[in-house]
Amino acid sequence: MPVSPRREMPAGPRRATLATVAASAGVSVATVSKVLNGRSDVAPATRSLVQSLLQQHEYVAPAPRRVEVTRVGEIEVQFDADLNAYSTEIIQGAVAAGAEAGVGVVVSIRKGADRTAGWARDLASAGRRALIAVTTELTARQLTALSRARVPLVVIDPLNLPRTRVTSIGSTNFAGGLAATHHLLSQGHRRIAYIGGPATAACNQARVAGYRAAMEAEGAPVIPGYVQSGHFRYHDGLVHGAAVLDLPQAPTAIFAGCDEMALGIMEAARARGLRIPEDLSIVGFDDTQNAQLASPQLTTVRQPLQEMGGVALRTALRLAAGERVDSHHVELATELVVRGSTAPVSEAGREERGAAGGFS
Q1: Which end of the chain is more exposed for a tag (fewer CB within 10 A), N or C?
Q2: Burial, 91: exposed, middle or buried (Cβ in 10 Å; 0-12, 13-18, 19+)?
């Protein structure tokens, strides 16, 4: 029995495209698109022609592609100043912890004055599950705004101590200050200065308290002008280092509140012809990459900065999930790392400084 040839189903009418309409109107596809989008930069006659042809060709705009929302919410790590080596360590720890948890991490810089009334709402509308604020000063109004927007907050090394109970991550700053100062005292230094960050910063207060406790325990006086407050930046180390080194009774050793300030102090010392560590011993705080790049390499107190970033992120996720945290303040251990910027006090160096007016 012969097999009947297969009959092809007639194809339906082809759907009109922008190119079809444009060819019929003798205009560009861009012009047709402008008409569809209600743009005003099309001549009235051309607009009328295109609209007529769109109807004639029964043009139907394709349905917009559905955007799959793959983001399940991100954690924002926010700083209030330009990023530096300290910031980088915190970010690395937070990003690594975020990768393990399958959560994205957004890094931003938002200075205090930029945290306006809508700041917290903007964070919530952007899909932020929580905020990690680093070395930042937050007002009671800003804390209230975050609470109302339901954006959990974790702070690292806050610059102020808000009355509201805030979850914070830090290190054993007091113990670190104590260890740094004891190290210098063990090298025979008695004229030891401290140059740190803002006087209101909780981490700075703890470091200077450790410094004072060590000095008092050893019976070493804190000479007027030996404690200086600035910002945790190189320039502040340079300026305050110069001020301390120009005192009538200049120190033989300086404990800096962070590595970046220590580098500024080193430069201030070199500008005055001082050798490190022969004429001046310097201890930093943080143990960032700068400490090993310094010349000589910097003796410093190591903060576990990457671990702090990781703990902050995991804590933020727990708060975002509505879980309770075991403690509202977590302190990770510090450790003194001795390198080449400290040495026993030199009598020869002491005499040289005295001849130059550096010592009484």
Answers
A1: N
A2: buried
- Give Cα 217 distance to the centre of its chain: 36
With cut-offs at 50, 70 and 90, classify the pLDDT of residue 25: confident
Token pair 């113990």 is at which residue?
Answer: 175
Name the domain count of the chain. Answer: 3
pLDDT in tens, 116-131: 668 888 898 889 999 9
Domain of 46 in residue numbering reads as 18-56
CA dihedral defined by 142, 144, 149, 151, rounded to 10 degrees? 70
CATH number at residue 209: 3.40.50.2300
Q: Tell me which residue of 160, 129, 182 sits closest to 313, measured CA to CA.
A: 129
CA atoms in the 13 A half-sphere facing the CB of 19: 2
Please report, to the nearest 10 degrees, the dihedral formed by the alpha carbons of residues 143, 144, 148, 154 taken in order: 20
